[in-house]
C-alpha cells in the first residue's frame, strides 16, 4: 500500500504523466461473497487500481499502469497474496 501511494504521487507530480492505463480481466477462485467483497475493496483502496465489475469467476479492474500483459503476472501482482489469505480464512 505504501509503495502504491508513493508511485501514485510520482505519477501525479511528474510533468511527463507516466501512465499506461487499461482494463484487465483477472480470474478469481473465491466463492464466499464476503471474501470477494474484502478482495474487491482491498484492490479498489490501492491507489492506481479500481474494480469495475465482479462476475462469478472474474474481476474487471482498471489499472493506471499496466506493467505486463502476461495474465499470470497480472493476477499475481493484483490479487496473489490477498486471495490466498482470504481463501484460507473464508473457505
Find the count of extended strands (DSSP E, 2+ residues): 3
What is the percent of helical residues? 40-55%
Low-confidence runs (pLDDT<50, min 5 residues)?
A: none
Q: How would you sum up the global shape?
A: elongated
Radius of gyration: 14 Å
Discrete helix count:
4
* Major beta sheet, strand line-up: 1-3-2
| Head-to-tail CA distance between termini | 25 Å
Summed over residues and divided by their number, the pLDDT gives a mean of 90
Q: What's the level 1 CATH class?
A: Alpha Beta
- The domain tally reads 1
Q: Which fold name fills CATH's third level, the topology?
A: Alpha-Beta Plaits
Secondary structure class reads alpha+beta
Element-by-element helix/strand order: HEHEEHH
Query: For the report, how would you describe the main beta sheet?
Result: 3 strands, antiparallel
Architecture (CATH level 2) name: 2-Layer Sandwich
Strand content: 15-25%
Describe this structure in words.
The chain has 91 residues and is an alpha+beta fold. It has a single domain (2-90), classed as Alpha-Beta Plaits. It is 48% helix and 20% strand. It contains 4 helices and 3 strands. The protein has a 3-stranded antiparallel beta sheet with strand order 1-3-2, covered by helices on one side. A hairpin with a 3-residue loop joins strand 2 (49-54) and strand 3. Helix 2 (33-45) packs antiparallel against helix 4. The protein is elongated. The two termini are 25 Å apart. The model has no long low-confidence stretch (mean pLDDT 90).
Amino acid at each position: 500500500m505504501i509503495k502504491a501511494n508513493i508511485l501514485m504521487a510520482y505519477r501525479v507530480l511528474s510533468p511527463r504523466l507516466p501512465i499506461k492505463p487499461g482494463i484487465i480481466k483477472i480470474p478469481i477462485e473465491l466463492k464466499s461473497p464476503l471474501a470477494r467483497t474484502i478482495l474487491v475493496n482491498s484492490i479498489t483502496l490501492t491507489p492506481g487500481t479500481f474494480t469495475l465489475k465482479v462476475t462469478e469467476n472474474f474481476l474487471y479492474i482498471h489499472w493506471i499502469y499496466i506493467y505486463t500483459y502476461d495474465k499470470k503476472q497480472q493476477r499475481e501482482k493484483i490479487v496473489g497474496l490477498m486471495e490466498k489469505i482470504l481463501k484460507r480464512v473464508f473457505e
